[in-house]
Amino acid sequence: MLLLQQMIILFLLMMVGFGLKKTGLINTTGVKTLSAVVVNAANPAMVLAASINKENTIQGMELARTFGLILIVYVILIILAWVLTRVLRVPLGQRGTYQNMTVFSNIGFMGFPLVSAMFGSEAMLYASLFTIPYNILIYTYAYVMMDRDRADICKTGITPEENAPTTSSATTSIAPGINAGRTAPEKCNTHTSSSHPSVSDTLKKIFNIGMIASILTIIIYLTRVPIPKFIESTVTYLSNLTAPLSMIVIGASMADMKLRDMCTDVRLLIFSGLKLLLIPIVGVLLIKLTGASALFVGVCVIMLGTPVGSMTAMLAQTHDSNAELASRGVALTTVLSVVTLPIVSMILGF
Fold first, then answer.
1. Distance between CA atoms of residues 304 and 204, nearest Å
2. Which residues of 217-229 are buried (b: 16+ CB within 10 A; e: fewer)?
């Protein structure tokens, strides 16, 4: 019941963002600005709040064991992503996008606010561990998947839009600036080596503010460094911005999308069911078998049950790949998660 209430609250906040965008009170630039505030200030503060909470009782060895479990979870997700593209008979040019949508969930914008509301700041220490492999994989594995899609698109000579059931304005919402109207050969010809970042550029992206906050959280927690009260209050105030602002951003991003476009792709609907119901239920049941703490298992319910991460659409756009498909996947799973996450929680006894 508590999770259902939290999902209703988040959904209403999404509707606020939806209404603000529809009425023109905020525009695309404003949405990007709010996103920057969440990513660079509010979300890192929420992660840091876990380390300055004096009631934490998680021991160092348990943290190490938990991090090992999280690494195994991501390895299994990568394998499962490959299997799903074959089971769903995903065509060439879309497989990388589907694999990214399987592996990367919205753990930042939706997962962190839910974990904090459901389990408190102590659980955020567990949640922050998820961001370390996530950030590494999003700039390595996800890049490879997008490049593979693009190579398949160039090889087959079709555009990403030809694989979609209908055209949609979703791309301009979550992934603005997609190269609409360009053909596959044109995209292939204009794609240069500049789109492949150097190792140093990749490392800079991996060690972003979210990664740094996660590492600091673990260091502060393990060393028990005393934090001044005014710093603790500042971090708390900033962290309180995460839930409302992140949901407003998601709602505003969906304002230009058409529900019909999201619901006419049968393959995407089946994928959404597997992503939001089967994967979290089976995954959490397997994690329970390892003897993990109830708190960590609860965090995994949220982390595995959240919708597709918006980074998948952004990467597809920058790689001239399947931004339209990825954007529809983000939007559809976000809407469905309002219903599926409480169902998953109820089935698993949370």
1. 27
2. bbebbeeeeeeee
C-alpha dist (Å) from residue 344 to 73, 77, 118, 225, 306: 18, 18, 15, 38, 11
Q: What is the dihedral of CA 263, 264, 269, 270, to 10 degrees?
A: 160
The answer on pLDDT for 47 being more than 80 is no
Q: Report residue 291: phi and psi, to 5°.
A: 80, 20
Instruction: Give the tokens for residue 95.
Output: 């497989």
pTM of the model: 0.77
CATH class, domain 2-347, is mainly alpha
pLDDT in tens, 178-197: 333 444 445 565 544 445 55
Q: How is the chain split into domains, by residue range? A: 2-347
User: How big is the CA angle at 250 (ends 146 and 268), to the nearest 5 degrees?
Assistant: 50
Residue 268 and residue 329: Cα distance in Å, rounded?
7
Number of H helices, E strands in the chain: 20, 0
**Does pLDDT of 336 surpass 70?**
yes
**Tens-place pLDDT, residues 102-136:** 999 988 778 888 888 888 877 888 888 898 888 88
Which stretches does DSSP call E strand in the chain?
Answer: none
